């Protein structure tokens, strides 16, 4: 695995740009407000579309991987949500990215761990993996959830955690809007 810090920084930059788009914020706001549960595929498709529109990246969605049969005896085949690389790079390896989108933090932690285990069990793939990065989102942002995730992501995952504002209030304004936040994990 090479250039993990560069790949991490690249994905942070791309996610920040994506999450600042007004139409994305509005859709995420509606998911939080309606407590929508099944929005992971939507996010993957929208993020892939965002990257494609930049014309700077080569990406593939739902890439087939073959897992170690010792770790996964019942299902040797699985999918990676998204693989990505810059078109201008001479290298033929990709960043493998898994997304998890949940309402609460407990299912998110469970899902992030399952994805990490799945990626570490890859035995064969048609694409060469340079690094694995996990991205997680949770809708409910109670103070206890935020405190737990900050500690968990920093200490256990050695990653980054942020809470994004979804309402239209100025960023520095301490608004009283309901349903105005979404938690984001990157590791």
What does this protein look like?
The chain is α+β, with helices and mostly antiparallel strands and 187 residues long. It has one domain. The chain has five helices and seven strands. It has helices spanning 4-19, 22-34, 40-53, 105-120, 143-157; strands spanning 57-67, 77-86, 93-102, 122-125, 128-138, 160-165, 181-186. The model has no long low-confidence stretch (mean pLDDT 92).
Briefly summarize what is shown.
By secondary structure, this protein is an alpha+beta fold.
Termini, distance in Å? 14 Å
Counting DSSP H or I runs of 4 or more residues, the number of helices is 5
Listing every helix as H and every strand as E from the N terminus to the C terminus, the arrangement reads HHHEEEHEEHEE
What's the β-strand tally?
A: 7
Q: Strands of the largest sheet, in order across it?
A: 4-1-2-3-5-7-6
Task: Supply Rg.
Answer: 17 Å
Looking at how many chains there are and whether they match, the oligomeric state comes to single chain
Tally of separate domains: 1
Shape: globular
The pLDDT mean sits at 92
Helix content: 25-40%
Look at the helices and sheets and give the structural class. Answer: alpha+beta
Query: Strand fraction band?
Result: 25-35%
* Biggest sheet character: 7 strands, mixed
Point out poorly predicted stretches: none
